[in-house]
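thought: fold this chain, then report.
action: predict
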Amino acid sequence: MEISGIRKVKTAVVGCGMISNIYIHNLSQLFSIIDLAAICDINPAAAEEKGKTYGVGRIMSIEEIAADKEIELVVNLTAAPVHYAVIRQMLEAGKNVYTEKMFTTDLAQSRELVKLAEEKGLMIAVAPDTVLGAGVQTARHMIDSGLVGEVTSGLVSVTRDQNLNSETFKFLQKAGGGIPYDVGIYYIGALVATLGPVKAIRAFAAPGLRHRKQLLYDTANADEWTIPGNNLITAALEFECGALVSVHFNGNAVGAQRNIIQLYGTKATMDMGDPDSFRGEVTLTFPEAEPVKMPFTHGYDGVHVFDHFPFEFYGHRGIGAADLAWAMRTGRTNRLSMYYGLHCQEILQGMDEAARTGETYYVQSRCEVKPLAAGYYSSNGMGRGRADAERSLID
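observation:
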């Protein structure tokens, strides 16, 4: 399509916590479709600081953002327990919304927001947007091109000391802080983006362990606490495509994070890298051959061309918001749609429910994640200039 003269989408960021740095940086400098017009935080001083750091001049209250007729898109970076209230307020004000993970902490609330967005003709995009990065998109391309064959099964495992992590990242001590919702969502998102929707789930689960404070210098923590909900879960997922995938999320482990994603096909086995990053390496192993590391077929590998940034390899956060902005201008459905967000959330909560009841949970929601066009990269062949991968978001 002709892209010259397309009007930028005036956008506001709500929430100026740690993850906002990479979002504000990218939304203000990386994506040509975005006009970052304002930022907001419950603590105005935090918003002022981000505004000065990234050159965003307007600091607004959430009520002012809702009332501003020119702002069309709101990027919600608040904590998960307040997602519902923020998203609903913005939808009622006529704004499209991109929200960080999770969609909400309650499935019924997410369904309500989907219905409201449909009634108002608005779109919601839901993180994780790492599934639009080079790693997961290359994996999807390997499947779509037939190199893997028919995927028959898979294995996903993530272990980390989520209890110890919750001392440093205190939001993990609240609802949604268990490993399935904090970390597992990246893996569920990657599976849905590569294999399609899940139709049935069986599972076993265990709660978080009672954790005694180890970082004694940190007086902001209580002496002991338990992360709410399940912090260990094993599940079997049946996908509509026929693949059966074993899932293991253990936040009651110790030591550094260990992760595995393997998909077993009729032609090859595919190993995917960490989907919590944009550049998880993709390796194919064919019969009687050594494993082959595949080159990325897409851009958005998480590395900034012109500068290095904290959370390197996370460097393309905001791609989901940019995809939504292009969808608004081109009249298509955004890739990380509210149906994608709802489906990923229902899978995780379905795992909890299947573990609680001991019965099969049948997933009600469905979604489709359209892949990005291959062949557009974040840098040129010498790695010294912008290529530009944003072209892959347009169609």
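thought: worth noting. The chain has ten helices and 16 strands.
final: tokens above.
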